[in-house]
Amino acid sequence: MQLWESVVIARRALTINKLRTVLTMLGIIVGVAAVIALISIGNGFRQQMNEDFASMGTNILTVMSGQGFGPGGGGPPPPGGPEEDLSQSDLKEKAAEPLTMKDVEALSDPSQVSHVVAVAPTYSVSSGQAVMRGDKQAKSVQITGATPNYESVRITTLALGEFITQEQVDQRARVAVLGYEVEAKLFDGNEYPIGETVRINGINFEVIGVLAESGQTGFGNPDNMVFVPLTTAQTRLDNAGAFRGSLKVFNIYIQVDNQYNMDATSAQVTAVLRERHRLGDEYKNDFRIMNQAQMLEFSNSMATTLTAFLGSIAGVSLLVGGIGVMNIMLVSVTERTREIGIRKAVGARRRDILLQFLTEAMTLSLMGGLLGVGVGYGIARALPMVISNLSSGTVVTPASIVLATGFSAAIGLFFGVYPASRAARLRPIEALRYE
Which of 5, 96, 260, 416 has the maximum number of C-beta atoms within 10 A of its C-beta? Predict the structure, then answer.
C-alpha cells in the first residue's frame, strides 16, 4: 500500500514539470534504444554465421591443399578461424602437393578413416566464367565439378530436375545443374529449363537441374554457381592435370557421423594425408583442414565479443542518462524541501522519504526504458534497410530487451540513492524554514 502511494506521488511530481521530465527521460530512451539496436547487430552477425555454417552441411571437415590458390589448387583460405596448430611451428616446410583422387579414395576407406558418412571432392574451373544461352548470358559464374555425394554433404536443395549421378561422372557427361540466379538470367519465367542447352567455354551442356534459391553466404553464393560432373570439369572444361597418375581436385568435403567424432576423424585424416604426401616427422602439413565445429565455436566467440563491445558502447549513453536522472532528482529535492519538512513534521519516517524519491527516480527510468525499447526495436528493424552493407541483418532477442530494461531500472536505483538519501536526512525544522 505504501509502495503504491509512493508511485502515485511520484507520477504526480513528474507530471508537474512535464518538459523537464521528458528531457530527463530522453537520456534513458536514447541509452536503452542504443543498447537494443547495437546488440541486435551482434546477434544478427551470430545468426548469419550460424546459418552460413548450416548451409555448408552438418559435421563437415573441409580439406584444402596448401599448393597455392586457384583452379586445381587448394582454393581460398578459410574465412577466419582458429589459430594455426602451434605443434608444427618448429617443423620444416616442403613444397606442397596437390590433393588428388587417390587422396579421396584413401579418405573414403573406412579402414583408414572411421566415422565417415560421405566424401565429396570438388574441382573449380577458373571463376568469372560466362554461361551462354542464345543471346542471353550469366556473367561471373563459378563453375564447380562435383560428385553425387555433394548434394547430401552440402545439403543442396533442388527446385527442378536432379543432381549429378555417378554414371554421368564416369562418362564425363556434358550436363549441368544451374544455380537459381544463373537460371533466372538465362530463362524467362515461363520457360522450362530442364533438357535445354547452355554453353560453357563454348561447349554445349544439357540442363538437368536447377538449385533452389539459397542467397549469399559468407562462404560464397550458390545461386551464382553451375555444377557439372567432376570429371567433366577436370578434363573437358579445364586441364586439371595429374599428380602421380591421379587427377587433382580443388578440395575435399568429409561428412562425419556426429559432432563428437569430429576431432578424432580430423586427426585420422591428417595422419592419412601426411603419410600419402610423404611428410615424415620433420615437415609441416601441406594441407589445411577446416573443422566446422571449431569454426562455429570460434565464430560464436567472435560474435559474443562483438556483442559485448557494442553493448558496452551503448551502455555509456545509458550511464549519461543516469547522470541526468541524478541531476534532476537533486533539483527536485531542493525544490521540495518544505514539502519534505511538512511530511516529516506530521510523522513521515526517514525510510518513507527515501522510498518516495527512490520510487520517483525508478519510475522516471522505467518509463524511459520502456519507451527506449520501442525506439530501439524500430531502429533495429530499420538498420538493414538504411545500411546496405549490413547483410547479416539484425536480431532483437527477449534477453536484450530484458537486459536493457533491467539496466535502466538499475540506473534509476543507483543514481536515485544519493538524492533520496539527501532528502531523507533533512531535519524537519531546517526544512520548514527553507524558502
Answer: 416
